[in-house]
Amino acid sequence: MPNLLMAQLCIFQRVVNNIQKRELKCFLKGKFSLNNFRSLIEYGVPVSLNLLKQDKGHSEEIMNFIEAVKGKIPSPISFEESVEVTLAAIAATKSLDIKLLINMKEFE
What we know:
The protein is an alpha+beta fold and 108 residues long. It has a domain at 1-56. The chain is 33% helix and 29% strand. The longest helix is centred in the last third of the chain and has 20 residues, at 79-98.
C-alpha cells in the first residue's frame, strides 16, 4: 500500500482598505500548520518557527531557472514531470467537463 499524505489547504481572500489580501493555511495530518509562509507550528511540540518576512521561494525559483537555462545546474523539474503535470491538468479539466473521476493510468 502506498504511503499517502493528506493535507488540508485553505486559501482566504479579503479586501482591506481597497487592497486585496490573500492568506494561505496548510494543515498536514493535524500536526503541522503553515500560516501564509510566515510561521510553521508543529502541534504537540513546544517549538514553532516565526519568520520576519514571507519567503514563498519565488526568488530562489527564478535564480534556479536562470542557472538551469545557462546550463550551470540541471533543470529543477524533469521533462517527464512536466509531461505528467500537464496530463494531470488536462485530466482534471476533462473530469470537470464530464463530471466523472478520471484515473491517470487510463488517461495516459
